[in-house]
Specification:
Layout: H1 3-20, E1 39-41, E2 47-51, E3 60-61, E4 73-75, E5 81-83, E6 86-88
Amino acid sequence: MSAEVQEAIQELILRKVLVDLGFSTSSVSSSNKCGWKGVICNEIGDLKELKMSRFSLRGFLATEIGLLIGIEAIDLGEKKIKAENIQLV
């Protein structure tokens, strides 16, 4: 699989994760994921961290989050989010 295809798949997964957490589709519509709310990238534009603690989240933590490559941290703060078969507290 080419690097471009893999990057496109990763962006689709990230969009799904964020929309399932309650972000609007318009807030994750730009082609630069590093500009999306709560998304932290490294110096070359790869996903590094999700900082969700300051946002009003609602919804579910998509199981696809496990498919995100290179993510080092997910900061949910003290949010309670339901995941399939798991409740994060």
